[in-house]
């Protein structure tokens, strides 16, 4: 047990020393980054959770903005931004998706969004569309009814023998409906009388 305790204490001291050394190294890198004039942001190599927290702390003390990106624990990395070049929400979203930030593409997307918003605003100013069907039912049946008005089409319509239209003169039965019904009733009565 005493040997284990001594080993544990030695490991803890070694980890503490490594953390202090890592912090000093990160402080030097962050100070170099601050002094570099042409560099608005710096991406650090992937590191574990403790190292990332140390780097975030160093960046906060230095007055910088820092964010972690990456999906799994092994590939997560830290990006540090100078205050005057703080990232926009779109830039952060691009880094979260694992893409490189392209300001020209972002500007194009922003312009398209503004244009869409202006069009939507113009639609609202025009007011709602008048109620009614979106199209005319006659368009659907134009091949059947033609493009003439209904009354004009009715006047000019001619019977087509192919559809079975027969003129009255050619019909065999010239009786009216009442006459035909009376005849049918008379036959029915006659049949019932014969059955009785």
Explain this structure to me?
With about 200 residues, the chain is mainly alpha-helical. Among the domains are: about 1-85, Ribosomal Protein S8, Chain: A, domain 1; about 135-180, no CATH class. The protein is about 60% helix and about 5% strand. The protein has eight helices and three strands. A three-stranded antiparallel beta sheet has the order 1-3-2, with helices on one face. A hairpin with a 7-residue loop joins strand 2 and strand 3. Helix 1 (about 1-35) packs across helix 2. The mean pLDDT is about 80. InterPro entries: R3H_dom, R3H_dom_sf, R3H_sperm-antigen, SPAG7. This is SPAG7 protein. It comes from Certhia brachydactyla. GO terms for molecular function: nucleic acid binding.
* CATH topology call of the domain at 2-87: Ribosomal Protein S8, Chain: A, domain 1
In spatial order, strands of the major sheet run 1-3-2
Please tally the β strands and state the result. 3
Largest sheet properties: 3 strands, antiparallel
Could you list the spans in which at least 5 consecutive residues all have pLDDT below 50?
Answer: none
Tell me the distance between the termini: 124 Å
CATH H-level superfamily title of the domain at 2-87: R3H-like domain
- Based on the coordinates given, report the CATH architecture of the domain at 2-87: 2-Layer Sandwich
Q: Helices and strands: which structural class?
A: mainly alpha
CATH class category label of the domain at 2-87: Alpha Beta
Mean pLDDT: 82
GO molecular function: nucleic acid binding
Domain R3H: 20-83
Organism: Certhia brachydactyla (short-toed tree-creeper)
Protein name: SPAG7 protein
């Amino acid at each position: 047990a005493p040997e284990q305790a001594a080993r544990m204490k030695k490991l803890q001291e070694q980890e503490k020393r490594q953390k202090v050394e890592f912090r000093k190294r990160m402080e030097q890198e962050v100070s170099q980054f601050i002094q570099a004039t042409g560099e608005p942001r710096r991406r650090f190599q992937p590191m574990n959770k403790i190292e990332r927290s140390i780097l975030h702390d160093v960046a906060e003390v230095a007055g910088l903005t820092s964010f972690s990106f990456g999906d799994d624990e092994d590939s997560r990395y830290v990006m540090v931004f100078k205050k005057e070049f703080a990232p926009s929400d779109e830039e952060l979203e691009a880094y979260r998706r694992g893409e490189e930030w392209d300001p020209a593409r972002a500007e194009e997307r922003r312009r398209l969004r503004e244009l869409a918003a202006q069009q939507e605003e113009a639609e609202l100013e025009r007011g709602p569309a008048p109620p009614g069907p979106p199209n005319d039912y006659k368009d659907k049946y134009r091949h059947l009814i033609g493009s003439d008005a209904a009354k004009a089409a009715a006047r000019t319509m001619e019977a087509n023998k192919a559809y079975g239209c027969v003129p009255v003169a050619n019909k065999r039965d010239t009786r009216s409906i009442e006459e035909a019904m009376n005849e049918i009733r008379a036959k029915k009565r006659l049949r019932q009388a014969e059955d009785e």
